[in-house]
Amino acid sequence: MKPTTVCMRIPAFVLFVAVLSVSAAFQPLIPSVASFTASDEQQPFILSPSTQIIVDSTFHASGSPSLESFAQTFRDDLVSITGFTTLSSVQVGSLSASLPSVIFLTLGATNHTYLSGVPTEEGYDFEISSQSYVIKGSGSLGAWWGTRTLLQQVALTAGSPNGISLAAGFGSDTPGWEVRGFMLDAGRHWYQPSFLADLCIYASFFKLQTFHLHASDNLWNQNIIPGPDWRRLYSAFRFRPSPGSPITELAPLLNETWSKDEFLALQNTCSAHGVTIVPEIDTPGHSLAISRWKPELSISGSPDHLNLSHPDTLPTIKAIWDEVLPWITANEVSIGADEYDPALADDYISFVNEMASYISSQTNNTKTIRVWGTNEPSTRLSIDTNVTIQHWDFPGDSIPVQLMSKGYRVINSEQGFLYLDGKTSDDGQFPWELVGDLMWSGAPGGGGWAPNVFSRTDGSNNTEPGNPLLRGAIMAIWNDWGNNATTPLEIYYQLARSFAVFAEKTWAGSGIRSTELSRDQFDSIYDTLNAAAPGQNLNRAVSAQPNNVVFQYVNVTQPITTSFESVGPPYTLTFTVKPSASPKKSQISVPLFDGSSILAPYDGGVIFAGVDSKLHMTQSQTLAFEDTTTHLLYPLPYTFLTDVPTRVEIHATQRYTYALIGGKTYWWTTELDIWGYYMKSANMSFAAPAGVVGGFGFEGELRDVELLVGA
Known about the structure:
Shape: globular
Radius of gyration: 27 Å
CATH topology of the largest domain: TIM Barrel
CATH superfamily of the largest domain: Glycosidases
Oligomer: single chain
CATH architecture of the largest domain: Alpha-Beta Barrel
Number of strands: 38
């Protein structure tokens, strides 16, 4: 049967000019939608378990991922938000007037361009009637962003006494910039691929589309770097070389690397949610991992810098990329190239240009490179203009308006607006999350930040939003202080709200559309959308429990497996524990969540275990939280008496975890410093280890256990 033609009543759309009907019941979303006109002639669209999702048979295979593939993921997300578990499978077909409740995905939307005027496949039109919700993308990715709009509408409408009712009308939407993303420093903090995938999925809900993955780096200490002990500084290269690879010895920490299959799966997951991973291998600076492998390639006294004049340095770096390039699906990679000695500017520029040419040639001209903006004061050489400059330090290094005047494409990562860092002992270095005052009103003249804003004080250092050489912006979170400063979930807590703010500003800009969100509008809907974001559970939320009780056990005589692997803060975990004065063991059999077990050194027993954390009663008779990603232990400054029952009440928020024992408060902390100075204790936050109660290896009694959520 020949599919019928879909006719949409979408008027010609002038970019970023919004037409909002006063009677529209269309709620603000994150990011804001460019245009919506309500229809007084149509009843609203009612979403129900009988609603069908249909993909236009003409375009179902179009795009990569395809429109149909995006639709399958959308269907799962819709079930997650609505609870409509009986929602039918995605169908391929046409839109028929006889169908009462249809979400229809198609392509063919036109007139969608970025602010620069460059056409984009990220735009979409949508039309809502009593019978159908039609999303028409300019490409499959545009249709995908349209499904994010629909999901957010549903999330903000669910729970209404009128059911899930979406106002009739038509709208159109396009992002302002091509690059809208985030960078995570995974070189100085280890992250499991599952966590990285969840970050992609969460970011996608707010229409961010680039994940810049900083995959090699090292800690830095000015007292250690120039001395003989520089090898003891933590450094890592995260791509696990294949067996027999010439770079095998570059990655000795195999348990802290991603295999090729794992990385391909990670990219596929992110791509299925509209997010592209742009990996970074940082050279010739930040290269202690390479120097540890081949110290002869380093600069004397600066082992984190590679000597570009050494005849083996460039072949070694090329060999590293030869290993990794076949893993990468993106059409762009970052070679880092920041904070190198400006006295070696000519060597630096020659290196960047050589690597740009090499990576292009090795990938049949399908991949280009990015570098961090670094001052290269050469009077003879300049970086090729086909290299994108990711600006980060103003005015110490790159000056964006000057770069663009010379023909360079620029991505805005200005640290004064867009840098975060894991916990540090310098409270004034970078904020915990993007600063609201800067993002909403910190630009010259009191306007909000946008990708065209590089300076908060000097408007002459900013550019026009539609500058064709301004590609967009990437916010960054660093881990300058290593694995012990944070857990992965603490990094998520820093990023969650910042992602949403950043998404609004990189999609809609500031002072461009009349439909841009105000700060109050954003604040009024963010918490609801954060809680509803589908496809992941980084909040470690649990379903509503009677009286907020997750579980209660009177007497735990053997390990109890629950249905809650991890519970996020805020929570209260209360129990009575009586450790016995037992002989010390050397090893213990540790069960894993996949059903297997391993032998591990014994340091007391585990009394609670989960996917994110474990709570140990150590041989020194204290409670220590373990971060199951890094396997670091964080002891409580309290010693329990053996053979004496002690009541413990643990409280946690996203910023701290503490125990009440005998009327006193004891905190779980970590020790931080800056380059060997400014030592300081910082609080740690842990998810409740709720998967196994009673754990393993613990000798003693555990009674009167209760976990309350939201308390």
